[in-house]
Structure formats: structure tokens, C-alpha cells
Amino acid sequence: MEKKVRSLNSIKVSHEKKTASCITEKMSVPETVCISMAQHIGAPCKPLVAKGDSVKVGQIIGDTDAFVSAPIHSSVSGTVKEISSIRSITGGEDQVIIIETDGRQDLWQRIKPPVINDQKDFVKAIRASGLVGLGGASFPTHIKFNPKNLDQVDTLIVNGAECEPFITSDHRLMLEDTEYIIKGILATMKNLDLKRVYIGVEENKPDAISKLKEAIGNSGHSQDIEVKVLNSRYPQGAERVMVYEITGKPLNAGVLPADLGILLSNITTIAFIGQYLETGRPLTAKRITVDGNAVAEPKNIIVPIGTRIFDVVKACGGYKAEPRKILMGGPMMGRAVYSDAFPIVKNNNAILIFDGPQALIPEETGCIKCGMCIKACPFGLLPVSLAEAYERKDIERLKRLQVTECMECGSCSYICPARRPLSFMHKMAKGLLKEVASNNG
Amino acid sequence: MDNRYHGNLEVSSAPHLVSPVNTAKIMGMVLIALAPAFGVGIYQFGYRAAMLTLVCVAACVLFEYLMNKIMKKEQTVRDLSAVVTGVLLAFNLPSGLPYWIAIVGCFAAIVVIKQLFGGIGQNLVNPAVTARIFLFMSFATEMTTWPTARGTGFDTVTSATPLGQLSLGGADSVSASNLDLFLGNVGGCIGEVSACALLIGGIFLIFTRIISIHIPLSFLATVFVCGFIWGGFDGAVFHLCAGGVMLGAFFCATDYVTSPMLPLGKVIFGIGCGLFTILIRLFASYPEGVSFAILLMNILTPYIDRITEKIMFRVPKKAVEGDAGNEK
What we know:
- The complex is a heterodimer.
- Chain A has helices at about 120-130, 140-145, 170-175, 180-190, 205-220, 240-245, 265-280, 310-315, 355-360, 370-375, 385-390, 395-400, 410-415, 420-440; strands at about 25, 30-35, 45, 55, 60-65, 70-75, 80-85, 95-100, 155-160, 195-200, 225-230, 260-265, 285-290, 300-305, 325-330, 335, 350-355.
- Chain A is α/β, with parallel strands linked by helices.
- Chain A has a 6-stranded mixed sheet with strand order 1-14-13-17-15-16, sandwiched between helices. In chain A, strands 2-8-7-4 form a 4-stranded antiparallel sheet, with no helix packed on it.
- In chain A, strand 15 (about 325-330) and strand 16 form a beta hairpin.
- Chain B has a single domain (about 25-310), classed as Ammonium transporter fold (Orthogonal Bundle).
- Chain B contains 14 helices and no strands.
């Protein structure tokens, strides 16, 4: 079982983890919050409150009957000011609930730790907590934890790689909330009947690794739980890469880890489970890294979900320079937002704000066919050939070169000396294939 | 500036970060790697070698600048690719070549071979190598008049190269020892004389991951094996160190644009270069064959790329049958 596997291709990116030593602060409640009803993959929630209603911290304010969904809770106490919509990052319209806060942060009276007897209770409690994959995908956790082949699933991989530059929120979590991580792991193991747990952490976080090892030792589960130290290279934290690096099992696009007997969760997700089972407080706040050269005081900060970016920045000393680009998430896979009025959503782990040259990718020049993109691709794809096939709209070649295996990690675009947006072209190519497939019936 | 609404931010697709290495830096590394050979060239052939190289660089950069202007394209002088072409072309010339002939070569390299095919990344064949062949054919006398290298100790103005001696009089008439060939105490083109200096530069490029080892290794190994069959160990070392094999294997054949991208293709390319080099040296009427070998393999590169791509990404049988009609 324990065999040394050959590492996948990866790239070296500068870590820029300047906030790694910043003890997490807690943000004071902003005047208003703007809570989106679309904070997970799947059907958006419908508001359960109306204008003028008073809400408490942890109160359910949005839910839906759709299968792939998770409820949304108020992160503040106050009064519903308005139910409106904003243009989402992806271009759609998202319903939002705007709440004027009263600053008292009264807890909803119905909040109490869940009572759990079996896997059904566990999954139900997780749905009630509003938990979604906090590593970025925001897939509702209760669905992931209820796979069809549960009896075949025996391994849990906890993803603490945090391979994106700048972001240190998971690192701080590992240092500050270690006991919640262990509690979350033990609860998940017990209720889903898992045998083996791996925590994957990049080697650039030695303090977190030793803290985790110590906590595992104290819990008396050092036979079942193992910290796997990973190379500090991008994209170690990608689901398919991590499964391969830890178990040696290749995970192709479209295959679920559960099909290989594995559940993979972000470490923040697992820690939240530990915290929720103890306190019963649903997902209403998030630890995020605020960094970038346009922020006065880069730091890690716990913010209520729904806090708008400009309020977050205000809590971080304000802008140091005129912001040109704001990212939700890391610089490799994060999304650029067009305005700083965007609210924090559940899966945010960082807000990065850049001015001037750092905001802009240098201009594209001619491809010199150096092949660096090929050496960078974790899945052995040929980014340069895919880009050529996309530009020529050569559907057959795109299929043959397996563009659908691309997970858009951005390694090829990062490494390209000609600054070609290769990863973006793959995304467009995948869209093209879908379009062609639907046209052909 | 606090707490003011900013609603007009830059948006673009991820990633929002790029590696510090760009095309100009890669070309700069190649130039650094060429420096030892340039030093040996100047030592062996004097100031004329330095001047000819400078003239070639200046001419290449000027032609690149003018072509971009005339064709109203983005200016690409800053990517240093024209500088590399100029240096490589000069390295493939005898140091006594009249400047105007060198400038004609630069015109062929940059204007005809590179820019008319679409500029950087679009040329089919290596500009420096092809321009050298063009000059070699057109100015046969000037291109084969070899000034005597200082290290040979001869006091003549010109002398034959080891490969020239081999071609005319067979193995016994070669006057230079293998050590002289390795160090560069022989006649020849400016940049090709010292196998040692080129090896240092080549290893530097491999260690800095600017080039991969596949092409140089398969090229040199093929030459070595063929040389061994021809003349034992000494013969193998002779063929490795004589003429343009080292310069070709590390700096011309590894040109990204005109060599295959996949490892398997690179190996095929390197073996092809080695075979054709030896074939021409031993059996054809020209004493040296590196440029011709590289040119030929350049032309084959798109086919090698296509074949290796198909080998790497074999379609499952069912899919092939279904799409047979669409395959070109």
C-alpha cells in the first residue's frame, strides 16, 4: 500500500505568504452586510425573511428544497433592509439579503449543539450547518459525505496544502484551531466509518505540521491519522493532484474521489465540523487572508459572511494605493471582481488587492514553442497544442488531446514566457466542446 | 482613500500571476551561455571576430526593427531573439568574412527566414543555420577562407580546418590533436572552435532548464556512436569536437521554434541531426554537415510533432472508428 509514487508535474511559484505569522483578528461587525443566496454549487436559496424582519446571528434566512444546496444563515443580528440582487462574478444575477446590523450580535435562540447517533444524523446536521466545501469549490458537504458507495469509502484526505501564493488562512487555522480539526476528523471518521485519515500539508508550514502531529498524538489516534508532508509546489492542493500524491491513485476528470474509496475535504471544512458539533453555531463567519500591495495592513481576519470587501479593507487599515484589481481567492485560481462592493461568501479564503503593475498581466507575445507549459501540466496535457487546436476550432483534436482533463489550475499560463492565456483558452475550448455536443443533440 | 467604492476594477481570467521568466530572459540566458565560446573566438581570431559578431548583432536587430515597422507589427526587438540570431550567425562564419557578406546573411536570416514567415515563433527553419547555408552556397570562397587560429601556433594567414583536411586527405592528414579540438586551438568558424567552451554553455542551459537534455544528448550520442564505428574512440571524440557539432547540438538544434516539443520528438530530432551530420561528413562532397542536418530536421519538425502527439494521445479504438470520416 505504502509505495512511493512519482510526483506529477508542478511549478514553483513564489509563496508570498507574508501573513503567515499574523495571529487572526476578529473583525467588528460592519454597518450592513449583504448575504448572497448563491453561495454553493447547485440551486440558489430562496429568502425566508422579508424586508423589515429582525434577524439574529445564526438564523436561517435562505433555503431551498433542491437536492444540491445548503441553507444560508444570518451572520449578524439586525433588521432586513432590502432584498435585491447583484451582478455575480460569473455574470449572472444573484439574489442578496441586505441586513442593517444592530451591533448586539444576539444569537438565534434555536442554536444548540446537534445530537448525533448515526450517519444520517451526522449528514443532516451538516446540511443544517450550511457547510459547503470551503477550499473553493463550495460543493455542499452533506452530499459529499453521503456517497452512494459509503461502505466502500474508507479513507479521508484532509487538504491543508494551501498551495496558492499569499493565502495563509488555512495555515493560521492549523495553528489556532488545531483541536477543532482533530474533533472534526474524529467525528467524520466515527460517523462515516472511515479507517484511515491523511492530512496533506505543504512542507513550507513546519509549525503547522508539528502542531498537528502533536495534537494527533494527544488524541491517541496516531495509528489512524497521518500527516503527509507535501512538496511546496503548485498545485499540490488541487483535489486530483492531492489524491494522487497521497494515495498514488490517478483521479481522472469526472471521477469522484469516493469512486476510489476516498473522501477529500478542505481542512477548514473539517475544522468547521468540529466546531459546529461543539457549539451548534452554523457557518456565519470566515477566516480570510487580506493581502496585496494596495492594502495598508495585510492580515488574517475572521469576518461575518456577507461583509462587503470595502468594509473588510477598512478593517485592514484601508487602501494604501488606488486598487486596480481585487481577487476573491488566490492569484492562481481566484476570480477578479469588478467592484469592491462584493460580499464575502462562504468559500472565500482570501481577498487580494493589487495596484499598478501587479494588477496587470504583461502583454501577450508570440509563442516560441518552448514547451514549458507541457512540463508544467500536472496531467501531462499539451497546453500549447490545445491552444492551437482551440484557435483553429479543431474539435477532433481538442477531443483527442483530452482538453476535458484540464482543471484550469493555471500552471501553463503562469509559466508561459510569452504570457499566453493558455488556461483560459482551455476553458473556452471546453465550452466549445459542450456547445458542439449540444448542437449535435 | 478609505472606504470609497471602487467599481471599475480590472477583470481578467486566472491566473493573475505570471512567472518572472519571459522570452527576453530566456534569450538573455542563451546569450550568457554563448559568452565562453565568444571569449575563445576572440582569443583565437582577434578583434575581427568581435567586430564581425557585433556587426551581425547590429544588422539583425536593425532588420528586425525595420521589418516590424514596415509590416506594422508589434515591436519585438526587446525580446532579444534577433540578438541571439545575430550571435549564432556570426559564430557560424569565418572571422575574416567581409562585413557586407555577413550583413547579407543577416538580411536572409531576419527578413526572409524569420519575419516573412510571421516573426518570432513562426519561422519554419532556424534563421542562423539557414542563413549560413545560404552564404555558404553563394559565397563559397569567402565562407571557406579560414583565418589561422592563434592557438595552432602556425604563422600563416589562413589554414585548413580539421574537417577540411579530413575531407581532402583522409584521417591521416588531420594535423590537430583531439585535445586541440576540445580546447579550440584549430581553425574554423568564430564560435565553433572550442568544444569545451560550448559544452560549458550548454550545460549551463540544461541546468537552468532553458533547454532540455534530449536533443543535445541524442545528437551527440549519435555522432559519438557513428564516429566510434568509423574510427574507434579517437574517431568518436574527433567527430564530437570538430566543426559545428557542439554549437549545433546545444545552441542551434535546440532552438525551440524549429525543434519538436515533446521528449520523444526531441530524441528523434537529435538522432536525425547526428546521422545526417556524419553522413555528409563522411560520404558527401562537403566537409561539414551540421547545418544541413539541422535544416533538414527543422523541416521535418512539424511532422515529428504531429506523430509524437498522436503516439502520446492515442484515441480509444471505438472513437477512431466513429470519427474516421473527420480525420484528415
